[in-house]
TrEMBL record, chain A:
It comes from the Eukaryota. It comes from Marchantia polymorpha subsp. ruderalis. Keywords: Coiled coil, Cytoplasm, Endosome, Protein transport, Transport. Residues 12-155 form the GLUE N-terminal domain. The lineage of its organism: Eukaryota, Viridiplantae, Streptophyta, Embryophyta, Marchantiophyta. GO terms for cellular component: ESCRT II complex; late endosome membrane. InterPro entries: GLUE_dom (IPR021648), PH-like_dom_sf (IPR011993), Snf8/Vps36 (IPR040608), Vps36 (IPR037855), WH-like_DNA-bd_sf (IPR036388), WH_DNA-bd_sf (IPR036390). This is Vacuolar protein-sorting-associated protein 36. SUPFAM superfamilies: PH domain-like (SSF50729), Winged helix' DNA-binding domain (SSF46785).
TrEMBL record, chain B:
Pfam families: ESCRT-II. Belongs to the VPS25 family. It comes from the Eukaryota. Keywords: Protein transport, Transport. One of its GO terms (molecular function) is protein homodimerization activity. It comes from Marchantia polymorpha subsp. ruderalis. InterPro entries: ESCRT-II_cplx_Vps25-sub, ESCRT-II_cplx_Vps25-sub_N, WH-like_DNA-bd_sf, WH_DNA-bd_sf. GO terms for biological process: macroautophagy; protein transport to vacuole involved in ubiquitin-dependent protein catabolic process via the multivesicular body sorting pathway. This is ESCRT-II complex subunit VPS25. GO terms for cellular component: ESCRT II complex.
Length: 441, 176
């Protein structure tokens, strides 16, 4: 990115797979590729070419996917938008949209106030495959919605609550925007209704009521559920934190209950992609963006399962995390196929038997092969061999995957099989090591 | 006849399952070929009948036995190598040549010379079970193998076979 652009755009962070990292509560709305950005107000400024522009409820994020550079414009800084003129000419040339930004002392400001002036004009030229129309109309909507202002208010409310002695509530909304709000005047107000044990109890009850209301509203119809998805995620997060805190208070709880809690926590954790990539928002870029989001998502489950997951499991986990924006198996396969052409740390792999899995690139068969070798060299295994189930237990994998590893090891000549009365079992391949000149004596 | 000592891998279950991977299977076939020849030589077995149980192909201590497919494959491999011959088109009976026909012919010739039968006459049964051959390697030779070996000697002009009235008195005249 050229220096001038580094001044205009705020730095934006990307995930390992090249997707922007969103702020809490930020939701992506529209994607458009092949955009050229120019600065109209700075003469001879170099343009920022071929970027993917992601419109969110809070920002316009510009990502150069080749160099993994990214920058963002806070929507609060947008002063005016000049949509492209609809003329006959616009049918034949790339459409251009001009955006005027608020500035303060020559640099881009956070939002409008008395000290700001409007000086910088950005030009976005849409040269890509995706149409600019939906982007422009969506931009109008999000600027109208002013989601970032709601966030700021939220933070104020939370800050006041914590002073009044209430629980911190939605802890992650405090991060980020709060840092910039150090100067917000906080009124220390002692509310008698909130004081004492009865106050805490009342507070608890209010929270329960609210959670109840959320649940009821959410399930009243599917549309409502979609719009409530974000609140559901934060509710899940709150419940998880609560569960996490609970065991320390009730050490006497039965063991199986503990197990249940652990399980519950895992479930709640897996409900979690706040801003899923959708066909509506990404359009033609859908599969590519989905591929990147999936790559980021599978990192944690992959680690837990020893570097390899069956495609079926990934499909289930991913859709559970997406909540309402489910994807089809076809889309998942397409997204995985795209991995080969973009720089991500995971890969799809098809075994000879046709089983398809996702594995991290750092995962290597040598390690599995070493563990299998140790397994089959145990005295019991030398006598009776190991089944796919035994291998699955020892490697912490699904039996189907363990079997693939066994078959792969057999192909390498490391193992050999016994197809006896007990089903298919695998043994260390001592046959290939036999010295035929010494074997018969 | 000494008890045959089985190689250690005879008790390894995979030895009895036909291996699907080529390298492993090649080695397995090689080990079986060797074992069949050594075993038959030890017990002077000349014919393996696939329709009957053959003790080598069943290991009751680990409850494994060779499948029919595997038996035919291993014997077939011996046939390709010239160390066995199918006796029928259906591949049910297999003649195991743990000594080649030429070696048998040479062995008979050696016996003839050692024992002064250079111009003698013997019946086939005498050679197989007679007093003269008792204690030598020739004793107990299979009839089919013997005839094949004598034909080799005939071709070299060292023997002439003749037929009697019945199968019992088929004979051979040596002219070594």
């Amino acid at each position: 990115m050229d220096r001038i652009w580094a001044e205009v755009l705020r730095p934006a962070q990307l995930t390992g797979a090249g997707r922007p990292i969103f702020h809490p509560n930020e939701i992506e709305c529209q994607l458009v590729d092949g955009v050229e950005m120019q600065l109209e107000t700075v003469p001879n400024a170099p343009s920022f070419r071929n970027v993917v522009v992601i419109l969110t409820t809070h920002r316009i994020v510009c990502v150069d996917e080749n160099s993994k550079n990214a920058g963002a414009i806070a929507l609060g800084a947008v002063c005016r938008v000049f949509p492209p003129k609809k003329t006959l000419k616009s049918m034949f040339v790339a459409s251009r949209m001009r955006i005027q930004l608020w500035t303060k002392n020559g640099s881009v400001a956070d939002g409008a106030n008395s000290a700001t002036e409007s000086a910088i004009v950005l030009v976005m030229i849409f040269r890509g495959q995706t149409s600019s129309d939906s982007f422009i109309s969506k931009l109008g909507e999000v600027i109208e919605a002013k989601a970032w202002e709601a966030d700021i208010k939220n933070v104020r409310v939370v800050a006041q609550q914590s002073i009044a002695g209430g629980p911190a509530g939605n802890s992650h909304s405090v991060r980020g925007p709060a840092d910039q709000l150090g100067s917000v005047p906080l009124v220390r107000k002692l509310n008698p209704a909130m004081a004492g044990v009865s106050g805490i109890l009342r507070k608890e009850k209010e929270q329960l009521d609210e959670a109840d209301k959320n649940l009821q509203e959410a399930f009243s119809d599917l549309n409502a559920l979609m719009s409530k998805a974000k609140e559901m995620v934060s509710l899940a997060e709150r419940m998880r934190i609560k569960l996490l805190a609970a065991p320390s208070q009730q050490m006497s709880a039965a063991d199986d209950e503990e197990m249940g809690k652990q399980e519950m926590q895992d479930w709640l954790l897996s409900v979690g992609i706040v801003s899923p990539v959708t066909k509506e928002s990404a359009g033609a870029l859908y599969h590519q963006q989905l591929a990147r989001q999936l790559a980021d998502f599978v990192k944690v489950p992959l680690q837990k399962s020893g570097g390899m997951l069956a495609m079926v499991d990934v499909y289930c986990l991913f859709n559970r995390a997406r909540g309402t924006e489910l994807i089809s198996p076809e889309d998942l396969l397409q997204a995985c196929t795209i991995w080969a052409s973009i720089d991500v740390p995971v890969a799809m792999r098809r075994f000879d038997s046709g089983v398809v899995v996702i594995q991290s690139k750092s995962h290597n068969d040598e390690e599995v092969s070493m563990r299998l070798e140790i397994l089959v060299k145990q005295p019991d295994a030398m006598r009776q061999g190991i089944s796919a189930t035994d291998a699955a237990r020892a490697l912490g994998l699904a039996p189907a995957l363990a079997k693939e590893h066994l078959l792969a090891a057999e192909m390498r000549g490391q193992l050999c099989r016994d197809d006896g009365a007990d089903g298919l079992r695998f043994f260390l391949n001592i046959l290939v090591q036999v010295d035929i000149t010494k074997a018969f004596q | 006849m000494d008890q045959f000592k089985m190689p250690y891998f005879y008790n390894y279950p995979p030895y009895f399952t036909l291996q699907p991977v080529k390298d492993t299977r090649d080695k397995q076939v090689q080990l079986w070929k060797e074992l069949i020849l050594k075993y038959c030589k030890n017990y002077k077995i000349f014919i393996i009948n696939l329709d009957e149980e053959f003790p080598l192909f069943v290991n009751s201590s680990i409850e494994r036995k060779l499948s029919h497919e595997a038996r035919e494959l291993f014997l077939g491999a011996l046939v390709t190598e010239g160390k066995a011959e199918w006796l029928d088109k259906g591949h049910r009976k297999c003649l195991i040549l743990w000594r080649t026909i030429t070696d048998w012919a040479n062995l008979i010739l050696h016996f003839v010379k050692e024992n002064g039968f250079e111009d003698g006459v013997m019946t086939l049964d005498e050679i197989r079970t007679g007093d003269e051959t008792r204690g030598t390697d020739i004793a107990g030779i299979d009839r089919t193998v013997l005839i094949k070996a004598l034909r080799v000697l005939e071709q070299r002009g060292k023997a002439a076979m003749f037929k009697g009235t019945s199968a019992d008195d088929e004979g051979v005249k040596f002219s070594a």
